[in-house]
Amino acid sequence: xxxxxxxxxxxxxxxxxxxxxxxxxxxxxxxxxxxxxxxxxxxxxxxxxxxxxxxxxxxxxxxxxxxxxxxxxxxxxxxxxxxxxxxxxxxxxxxxxxxxxxxxxxxxxxxxxxxxxxxxxxxxxxxxxxxxxxxxxxxxxxxxxxxxxxxxxxxxxxxxxxxxxxxxxxxxxxxxxxxxxxxxxxxxxxxxxxxxxxxxxxxxxxxxxxxxxxxxxxxxxxxxxxxxxxxxxxxxxxxxxxxxxxxxxxxxxxxxxxxxxxxxxxxxxxxxxxxxxxxxxxxxxxxxxxxxxxxxxxxxxxxx
Length: 304
What we know:
With 304 residues, the protein is α/β, with parallel strands linked by helices. 40% of the residues lie in helices and 13% in strands. The protein is built from 11 helices and 7 strands. The protein is globular and about 55 Å long.
C-alpha cells in the first residue's frame, strides 16, 4: 500500500494489500466516455478488483454494468451520484448497492433530469445568442446513451471550432459565472439521502473537499447529515490532499461513518484522471469494501 495513504486508514482496516479498487466512476450514460461494459474491460486490464458505477442522476447503465462485471470476474457495485442543493460549494451524494427501478429513487432522478433538460435548453440559447451556430442535435449526438451535460456542449463547441479545447469551453463559457452558465434544479441533501435509502442503498457524501466549509462547519454539516441517514464519507479522492484524506477519515470515525474512495473517472472527458489511480498517487484501500458491504447488510464476497 502507498505509504502516504496507509497512514490514513480507518481503525481496523489492514494495509497489507495492494489490490486496486475504484468506487467512483462514470460511463456514457452520464458524462463519461466509456460504456459500462468498456469501464469493466478497462478495469480488468488495469488490474482492478472492484469498481462501482456512479453515473450522475441515472441508473440507466447498471444492468449492462452488472452483466459485464459478472462476466469479467470483477466485483461490480451498482451506484449513482446525485447532485444536492448546497451553497456556496458543491455537494454530491453517492449511493451504493442501490436497486435500480426503485420508485422513490427513480422519481427523484427523473425530477433532476427534467431540471437538467431545461437547463440544457437555456445553455444552448445562450451559446446561440453569443453567435455560435450550434443546434441541439450537435450536442445530443455527443452524449452517448443518455443524459446530456456540459461536457457534451464543450465537445460540440470544440468540434465546431468555437474553442481550442473542452477546457477552453469551460473556462470561457460553461463554468459557473461564465457567459453561458445556467444553474439547475437540485434536491436537498436530506432528500437525496432518503431517496438512496428507499432503494436499499448506502448514502455517502462525495468528495467533501468540494464542500466550501471550514473544518468546524463541515463537521457540523456531516453530523446533521449523519442524523438524517448519511452512512459514509468519500475520504479517498483524486483531488484530496493527503492531509485532507486523513482529516476526512477521522471525521468519518468521529460520527461512525464508513469510509469510501474513488477516482471520479470520466475517461477521455478528463484524461488526467486514471482509473484506480486518480492523478497517479491515489490508492483506495480495498479493506474499505468490508465496511461498505456491512452498511448495505450484504455478505462481503472478498477479493481474490
